[in-house]
């Protein structure tokens, strides 16, 4: 699955704020599968596909998005999140962010990732350490710290919204 407004290559600085990969349509090569098997299955993660994106991008894997859709994603009222362009999906995402659930998810995902530092590149380990410090900063300082780390979403508008939510203490 690929975002129609993708403007950056998939990498850890994006994976820390956004999942680009739908688990039902992801394909792993043997090297990526070895990393996943070595990492084990963390308990309590919200989305296995986001976990894979974080883990593999942190391990230095080249994550690729195929611009050609090959799987139809069936949307219904009970989807956990839903497609971003649909009203239900937007409402669910807003609730997750405003309730603080998004922050809890990210804290959990990053904690699991830091426990597997032996699988990560040196740059990824350094970025995670700096990210952990940035997450402790209040509003505006957190947004500046995220910007300094180069954290971004795939679209410019999404990145601006991300930084605004950081200022408000929601991310």
Description:
By secondary structure, the chain is mostly helical.
Give the secondary structure arrangement, pairings included:
Layout lengths: L11 H4 L14 H10 L8 H11 L28 H13 L1 H14 L7 H13 L4 H11 L6 H12 L4
Helix pairs in contact: 6-7, 7-8
Count of individual beta strands: 0
- Give the low-confidence spans: none
Element-by-element helix/strand order:
HHHHHHHH
Alpha-carbon Rg, integer? 16 Å
Strand content: under 5%
Beginning-to-end CA distance, first to last residue: 24 Å
* Helix coverage percent: 40-55%
Q: What's the shape?
A: globular
pLDDT averaged over residues: 87
How many helices? The count is 8
Secondary-structure-derived class: mainly alpha
């Amino acid at each position: 699955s690929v975002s129609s407004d993708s403007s950056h290559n998939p990498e850890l600085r994006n994976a820390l704020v956004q999942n680009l990969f739908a688990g039902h349509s992801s394909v792993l090569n043997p090297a990526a599968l070895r990393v996943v098997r070595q990492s084990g299955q963390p308990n309590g993660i919200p989305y296995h596909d986001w976990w894979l994106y974080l883990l593999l991008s942190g391990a230095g894997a080249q994550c690729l998005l195929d611009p050609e859709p090959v799987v139809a994603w069936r949307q219904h009222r009970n989807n956990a999140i839903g497609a971003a362009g649909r009203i239900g999906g937007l409402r669910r995402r807003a609730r997750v962010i405003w309730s603080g659930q998004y922050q809890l998810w990210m804290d959990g995902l990053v904690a699991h990732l830091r426990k597997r530092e032996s699988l990560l590149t040196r740059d990824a380990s350094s970025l995670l350490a700096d990210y952990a410090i940035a997450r402790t900063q209040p509003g505006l300082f957190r947004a500046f710290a995220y910007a300094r780390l180069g954290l971004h979403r795939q679209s410019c508008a999404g990145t601006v919204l991300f930084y605004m939510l950081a200022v408000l203490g929601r991310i």
